[in-house]
Design goal:
Shape: extended
Protein name: BED-type domain-containing protein
Radius of gyration: 47 Å
Order of helices and strands: HHEEEHHHHHEEEHEHEHHHHHHHHHHH
Keywords: DNA-binding, Metal-binding, Nucleus, Transcription, Transcription regulation, Zinc, Zinc-finger
Helix content: 40-55%
Subcellular location: Nucleus
Strand content: 5-15%
GO molecular function: DNA binding; zinc ion binding
Pfam families: hAT-like_RNase-H, zf-BED
């Protein structure tokens, strides 16, 4: 049985169905177009509101169309559909503000300043072309930014270019930044590490030298175990091999220092001192050079530490010093030599000045010999303290007595708590260093109540018998000037030559004031101190006075003031000698400068030829 075909076979039916479909499509089209017109009208009214904004592609129409243009578009659409009766819609007449075509463009969003380097720059106003300036807060340099430009120039300026940025604020570039600065975009290749036995041995030797380790430390079991765990391939050297490595490092450093000295054209000052071992059967000499480099930085280097055979006469000391100066090629660059105050050192200077070194010294060697100022102060104060030797010895023994046992220290702590004294431990001095004696006396005065209370708790009244705390206070007031001067002149991080003359002059004036004290022992101290002062500093020191004159804070007025106060009768003689020394020093430097200039002209002329 054949299945019936559901599709009608009549042509009239087919035409009737097609007309029905066409009418439905026309109805739907009219409805869509009418709704589209209403939406266009509503959006046009919204576009006229100042608080709303339409995008330029909304419904395919330009948002700048006027209501009349919209009505015309609607009419054309209806006529195209065959609708001849176009309804006359009353469109409200609204005033549309005239806008600049440039203002219709999208406003670019303000670029976000996310880089950390923006905190060091000031952002300017954006110009019409989209650019703006970035001004450095340190130096004021400006960069043009905007329109997609990155902050690489700001980073480079802050890290490298700007000289006014503090070093502590500079940031080290990361590995990525270094790669970008090198102009590569590929990842940096990793270096292949290779074990180097000699490099490790050299590092071990430097550690031993820097920390004063003994050579036999390489024989310690746990050190060898640690090095084996750290690097199994490393062969720990023997004691003799380590010693040889240290000597090789010394030779390398010595050659580097010699080359440095040969390139410097400045003058060198030298300090020397002698030591003896505990048995006093061997003596040692140290020689240190001081200089200022081309960057005006103060340096010092130990150029000799060697045994000095006895007897330590002036000739032996002079021969040893001159030998080291010739070894380092510094005998022609010497300015002065600072030594302790002793007869052997005075003979040493005379021996040196009688040799060939005198021909290269400025001012005919008048400035060569300098006495150690701190050592002179030590000798002056030690002579003054001899007057109170009994009281100082009592305080010293009291300090030792309290610290002798733990039980006494417990009693002293109870005494400190009872009288509410400073929580400090008693300490005694080194008798050869007066500044430690001053600190001991100062500590005893602070703990005076605790010491008296300890004598009661220990049932030992003789411990503080004979101590006069008022006398001790007067002594401390007199010694404070000497102690402050010692601290100032003992500095190692700054030049002190320009400070010696005013500091020593203040010490001399303080000694003279001590003569007017109400305590007889202070008057006696001042007499002994001034006798020692007059022995070493009669008429002042010429090099110290010249350094004071060259100090822009002092100049010649400070020297004139102190000389009038200390040596009024010798004022004219001293000032004349000072003027002659300054002129001689100027002529020596002028001669050296002219010779150096001629050598430079000669070398440049040879290059031209």
């Amino acid at each position: 049985m054949a299945m019936a075909d559901p599709t009608p076979k009549c042509d009239d039916c087919n035409s009737q169905g097609r007309s029905l479909v066409d009418s439905l499509i026309a109805m739907i089209t009219d409805e869509v177009k009418s709704r589209f017109s209403i939406l266009v009208m509503e959006n046009t009214e919204c576009a006229s509101e100042p608080d709303l904004e339409l995008s330029e592609d909304s419904f395919g129409l330009d948002p700048n169309y006027t209501p009349e243009e919209i009505q015309r578009v609607q009419n054309e659409a209806r006529q195209a559909d065959g609708d001849t009766q176009v309804p006359q819609t009353q469109v409200p007449q609204t005033e549309v503000p005239q806008t600049d075509p440039e203002s219709t463009k999208k406003r670019k969003k303000r670029e976000k300043m996310t880089s950390k380097y923006w905190q060091y720059f000031i952002r300017g106003e954006t110009k019409e072309d989209g650019f703006y300036e970035a001004k450095c807060k340190f130096c004021g340099h400006t960069y043009d930014m905007g329109n997609g430009r990155g902050t690489g120039s700001l980073m480079h300026h802050f890290i490298k270019a700007c000289e006014k940025v503090p070093k502590a604020m500079r940031h080290k570039p990361s590995a990525l930044q270094k790669m970008l600065q090198a102009g590569t975009t590929t990842a940096p290749a990793l270096d292949v590490w290779e074990f180097n036995q000699m490099k490790c041995r050299k590092g071990l030797a430097r550690m031993v030298v820097a920390h004063d380790y003994p050579f036999n430390c390489v024989n310690h079991y746990f050190l060898r175990e640690f090095l084996r765990d750290l690097q199994p391939q490393f062969k720990v050297p023997s004691r003799n091999t380590l010693r040889a490595d240290c000597l090789n490092i010394y030779a390398e450093e010595k050659d580097m220092l010699y080359d440095l000295f040969s390139k410097l054209d400045c003058k060198f000052s030298f300090t020397s001192d002698l030591w003896s071992n505990k048995g006093r059967d061997r003596g040692f000499m140290a020689l240190t050079c001081h200089y200022i480099d081309e960057s005006w930085k103060l340096h010092k280097r130990v150029i000799a530490f060697c045994p000095l055979p006895s007897p330590h006469t002036g000739k032996n000391i002079a021969d040893a010093i001159y030998e080291k100066l010739v070894l380092w090629n510094l005998d022609k660059k010497a300015l002065c030599l600072v030594l302790d105050s002793s007869s052997a050192n005075d003979a040493c200077v005379k021996e040196l000045l009688s040799g060939p070194i005198l021909d290269t010294l400025p001012a005919d060697g008048q400035l060569f010999h300098q006495r150690c100022g701190c050592h002179v102060l030590n000798l002056i104060v030690q002579d003054g303290l001899d007057v109170l030797d009994g009281e100082i010895k009592t305080i010293r023994e009291t300090m030792k007595y309290i610290r002798h046992s733990q039980s006494r220290m417990e009693k002293f702590k109870r005494a400190v708590a009872q009288v509410k004294a400073p929580d400090k431990k008693p300490a005694w001095d080194v008798q050869t260093r007066w500044n430690s004696t001053y600190l001991m006396l100062q500590l005893a005065f602070e703990l005076r109540k605790a010491i008296e209370r300890f004598a009661v708790l220990d049932k030992n009244p003789e411990l503080v018998a004979g101590l006069d705390w008022n006398k001790l206070k007067a002594l401390l007031d007199c010694l404070k000037v000497f102690y402050d001067a010692t601290l100032t002149l003992s500095g190692t991080k700054y030049p002190t030559l320009n400070l010696f003359f005013p500091e020593f002059c203040e010490v001399c004036l303080n000694i003279k004031k001590m003569r007017n004290s109400n305590y007889p022992f202070i008057v006696e101290m001042s007499l002994q101190m001034y006798a020692k002062w007059d022995k070493y500093w009669t008429g002042g020191n010429m090099l110290l006075a010249i350094a004071c004159v060259f100090d822009p804070r002092s100049k010649l007025g400070v020297v004139e003031y102190y000389i009038k106060e200390m040596y009024p009768n010798d004022y004219d003689t001293f000032m004349a000698n000072l003027n002659n020394c300054i002129n001689a020093l100027f002529k020596d430097y002028e001669k050296a400068y002219n010779r150096q200039s001629q050598e430079q002209i000669g070398s440049s002329s040879q290059q031209v030829r």
